[in-house]
Amino acid sequence: MTNIAFIGLGNMGNPMAANLVKSGLNVTGFDLVAGNLSQAEANGLAIASTAAAAVDGADVIITMLPAGAHVLSVYEEILPYAKPGALLIDSSTIDVESARQAHKMAADRKMLSVDAPVSGGVGGAEAGTLTFMAGGSKEAFALAEPILDPMAGRVVYCGDGGAGQAAKICNNMILGISMIGAGEAFVLAEKLGLSHQALFDVASTSSGQCWSINTYCPVPGPVPTSPANNDYKPGFAAALMLKDLKLAQEAAQSAGAVTPLGASALQLYGLFNAAGEGGTDFSGIINLLRGEEKK
Ligand code: NAD
After folding, report:
1. How far is the CA of 295 from the centre of ligand 1 (A)?
2. Largest pairwise CA distance in the chain
3. Distance separating the N- and C-terminal Cα atoms of the chain
4. Which of 16, 31, 119 to mutate to test the pocket of ligand 1 (most atoms within 8 A of CB)?
5. 267: part of which helix (H) or strand (E)?
6. Which InterPro entries match (predicted)?
7. How confident is the model at residue 292 (pLDDT cuts 50, 70, 90)?
8. Rounded distance, CA 17 to CA 4, Å?
9. Has residue 159 got a pLDDT over 90?
10. What residues are in contact with ligand 1 under a 6 Å CB criterion?
11. DSSP assigned state of 83
């Protein structure tokens, strides 16, 4: 049987690991937070006392950590204890440079590795319907795909090492920009006396249609499942959108890409977070555009 080590059992990692257990895999977990470990144990994971102990005998090592620095430091710690030939999968959302560095650390030990960040949030992690965006060699991806499957609705191969992270930040830059665009349009409609429903009925079926309007409409009413109908509870928290927009701008600067709307989106989400709204769903940015904090 395939043995999995799962390091980072937070909001995303715990339900993801639980889905691996449900699919019949042996999963040993480690996290720094005791409460996360007891939840993991209740979900059927074996618990290790250190990250190095968790990878002992593992065929696949999955990490789901906050940022690039955490991934690189955990890799430093665990790689000397990993089984030769173990596959590394990092599903954290991290900067492209750190992702490439993590691949290099694996390659230096002749280990295969995949960067496989996700979209779909905690709901997708619980339901096992995450979209994985994977980067790495084709050989590594072929080994990773069946492991990701119990956690996934979709797994997309994006290219060489770092390509998964690149796809994730490009996608989320589109999302941040389009949500601000949707918010601005609804605020303008309000000022012009146009109802939310009328704008939705036109935009959602015309050239303005996009996920931020059709699926995640930032005003209450037209899409009953959108967080706007639930006092903007996340969903996808504004703090995470800010993180992804920062990663996109860092990548744009180092790659020499011109992304003025991405830069503006970063600034606006920075203001929204600074107003204490980091825990609000990112679609709540419409209230900043209206000049209010919460409606
Ligand atoms: P989280 O903070 O809930 O979980 C991260 C976990 O990593 C924590 O439990 C923390 O204790 C653990 N950790 C940190 N350093 C560690 C170490 N050295 N050893 C072991 N464990 C360590 O964050 P999350 O919401 O689960 O997100 C994880 C990653 O997924 C992030 O990169 C995030 O950007 C990304 N992501 C999150 C969402 C979401 O909706 N929450 C959606 C998509 C992607």
Report:
1. 30
2. 66
3. 52
4. 31
5. helix 260-272
6. 3-OH-isobutyrate_DH-rel_CS, 6-PGluconate_DH-like_C_sf, 6PGD_dom2, 6PGDH_NADP-bd, HIBADH, HIBADH-like_NADP-bd, HIBADH-related, NAD(P)-bd_dom_sf
7. confident
8. 9
9. yes
10. 7-13, 30-33, 36, 51, 64-66, 70, 74, 92-93, 118-119, 121-122, 236, 240, 243
11. P
Reading the block at residue 262, the tokens are 């991405």
Q: Find, among 238, 236, 218, the residue nearest to 228 by Cα.
A: 218
**10 Cα–ligand 1 center, Å:** 5
pLDDT tens figures, 227-262: 999 999 998 999 999 999 999 999 999 999 999 999
User: What are residue 157's phi and psi, to 5 degrees?
Assistant: -85, 125
What DSSP character marks residue 281? B
Residue 164, judged by CB atoms within 10 A of its CB (0-12, 13-18, 19+), counts as buried
CATH architecture of the domain 166-290 equals Orthogonal Bundle (1.10)
Hey, what are 240's tokens? 């995470």
Q: Give the distance (Å) from ligand 1 centre to CA of residue 9.
A: 7
What topology does CATH give the domain 3-161? Answer: Rossmann fold (3.40.50)
